[in-house]
Design brief:
Number of helices: 14
Shape: elongated
Structural class: alpha/beta
CATH architecture of the largest domain: 3-Layer(aba) Sandwich
Strand content: 25-35%
CATH class of the largest domain: Alpha Beta
CATH topology of the largest domain: Rossmann fold
Radius of gyration: 29 Å
Distance between the termini: 49 Å
């Protein structure tokens, strides 16, 4: 069972864990004597915390910086202990440890009582959904083993946890230094008749991989080994929940593409007939469909994950600069990574006091309820239903600055189009010619290139130049102007703003056909907007959609893959677009 030990700085977490290691006989031979000798040679008093605090800075300063990972055992089972930092500067490390744990010990100093990080850590445990929580009131020897001192701390901690809807499974008075009430109960506190800490831990129900839950496998990658004569496409990932087996119908979200499992693969092992939660595995499918990293595999007939570009979430923030609406961040959920902005902050919560109120930003170490807007749709579960596929981290400037849990999936205006795509994919008649065969024949990967910009710019001329350039190089390419759509496929609908969504939905369906045929489709469209791209991405995988803005940069309403100034020559622009296609793997390098 993985457990995390948390609490305010200097409340004795590492001492508690070090004593548990020593008193359960879990230390390597000679380790205790080695640490005692090190303390003697450096003229430092021996502390059980030194058994964990391996980093030099930790020993010098007497604080835990990293989340130490150690092991001990009881007569019942083995434990993995994550001794998390208590100092507020290292809250990120604490969250890292707690996110991996099934149970938590919250250590509180009997003299100092409940402090800021006692409450802050409790808030994080509640947000992360740690299953079991026990409170350890440490340093009882320093308050004369007083029942009144223990009761005061226990009542305060119980009341705070109650505001988080967390009921502690035990509150135990201990002395880490003297080893009282850790492994066995001592005579120092005859008024306490409850279990020792080790008994509390052994009483926790060990979490089992949720094999009976709906199947969820975030797609990590798709592997091919054609150089070795192996023509399998192996969709690889780690199963978060449920079970999958040969013959099962599976669907990948958000694309909605379906197939059946042809085989269950394992690395350097014989194929299996099934795999379950906790397994890192690979699936081959009876029909080759295009799926990529970031999609979420589920079984047909089981509850489906949510798909949206908007979600309501509880967010904790650890970055030095505050989290603010409107700024670009990245969200990682499962294996998906997508651009993100805070659309609205509903309330900001001080994690140490639980006071809440309106706010325009989320400061470091605070928690907030926010509405998040994503650049493209992702698949997820609500944290209350499936924690592993309902929590995320937020990246800013290549560093993880925060994280959170999904409370609610919100409507984004594209759900009707996504349902049409899911229906299309369910009924899709697959060709006998696989996408990889077309790619090999044409010497390219299919893609959609959208050339957009102000109406006065010659977007069509630029798009046709790229088509000619690629065709003369032997590529399978096709130009599509919006007029071709408006007076053909879209002739039955008007050209009002209200119909714009449907125009781009149909364009997405045509693009899907062209991609399935293995072509590079080049589209010219005036003044493309971000919501136009959103609807295109319902049908066109994000990595297959490339955007080129031609014109003044300050007029752009999208974050284009390539920006061409209005003074660029046709040849210069054609070379830049060809280079983009090569860099993205559409054309061979």
């Amino acid at each position: 069972m993985p457990i995390v030990v948390v609490g305010h700085v200097d409340h004795g977490k590492s001492t508690v864990v070090g004593r548990l290691l020593a008193d359960t006989g879990s230390l390597p031979d000679g380790k205790l004597d080695q640490v005692r000798e090190l303390c003697r040679r450096t003229s430092k008093p021996f502390e059980y915390a030194f058994l964990l605090d391996a980093l030099r800075d930790e020993r010098d300063q007497g604080i835990t910086i990293d989340a130490a990972r150690v092991f001990f055992r009881s007569a019942l089972r083995h434990y993995v202990v994550l001794d998390a930092p208590g100092h507020v500067e290292f809250l990120r490390n604490m969250v890292t440890g707690a996110a991996r744990a099934d149970a938590a010990l919250l250590v509180v100093d009997a003299r100092e009582g409940v402090r800021e990080n006692s409450r802050r850590h409790a808030t994080m445990l509640a947000m992360l959904g740690v299953s079991h929580v026990a409170v350890v009131v440490n340093k009882m020897d320093l308050v004369g083993w007083s029942q009144a001192a223990f009761t005061a701390v226990a009542d305060e901690m119980r009341a705070f946890l109650g505001r988080l809807d967390v009921v502690p499974e035990a509150i135990v008075p201990v002395s880490g230094v003297h080893g009282v009430n850790l492994v066995t109960r001592g005579p120092e506190m005859p008024w306490y008749t409850g279990p020792a800490v080790l008994e509390v831990l052994d009483g926790f129900t060990a979490a089992t991989p949720p094999a009976d839950a709906p199947f969820r496998m975030p797609v990590q990658d798709v592997y091919r080994f054609t150089r070795f004569g192996d023509d399998r496409r192996i969709v690889a990932g780690s199963i978060e929940s449920g079970t999958v087996g040969v013959g099962d119908a599976v669907v990948f979200y958000p694309s909605g593409k379906r197939s059946r499992v042809a085989s269950v693969e394992a690395f350097h092992a014989a194929p299996r007939t099934s795999a379950s939660a906790g397994d890192a595995t690979g699936l081959t499918l009876d029909e080759q469909i295009y799926t990529t990293r970031g999609e979420l595999a589920a079984r047909v007939g089981e509850p489906a994950p949510h798909v949206s570009t908007r979600l309501r979430a509880s967010v904790f923030w650890l970055g030095r600069a505050p989290l603010v609406p409107g700024r670009d961040y990245h969200l990682r959920l499962g294996t998906a990574r997508v651009g993100m902005r805070v659309e609205h902050i509903e309330q900001v919560i001080d994690a140490s006091t639980l006071t809440a109120g309106p706010g325009t930003e989320v400061a470091r170490n605070d928690v907030a309820d926010c509405v998040l807007k994503l650049d493209r749709a992702v698949a997820f579960d609500l944290h209350a239903d499936r924690p592993d596929t309902g929590r995320f981290v937020i990246v800013d400037d290549y560093e993880i600055r925060g994280g959170g849990i999904v409370r609610e999936a919100l409507a984004d205006g594209d759900e009707a189009a996504r349902e049409m795509v899911r229906l299309r994919n369910r009924k899709w008649e697959h060709s006998r010619i696989a996408p990889d065969q077309r790619a090999a024949r044409f010497g390219q990967r299919p893609a959609v290139v959208v050339v957009t910009g102000p109406r006065e710019m010659d977007r069509k001329g630029l798009a046709k130049h790229l088509e000619t350039r690629l065709f003369e190089a032997g590529r399978a390419v096709y130009f599509l102007g919006m007029a071709n759509m408006l007076y053909g496929v879209d002739a039955d609908i008007d050209r009002t703003l209200a119909s714009r969504h449907e125009h781009f939905r149909r364009l997405g369906e045509i693009a899907h056909l062209m991609l399935d045929a293995g072509l590079v489709l080049i589209v010219s469209a005036a003044e493309l907007r971000a919501d136009d791209l959103d609807i295109l991405r319902v049908s066109v995988p994000d990595e297959r959609l490339l955007t080129v803005w031609y014109g003044a940069a300050d007029a752009a309403e999208i974050a284009a893959d390539l920006a061409l100034p209005d003074g660029a020559s046709v040849e210069e622009a054609g070379g830049a677009m060809t280079a983009l296609l090569t860099a993205r793997g559409v054309l061979p390098s």
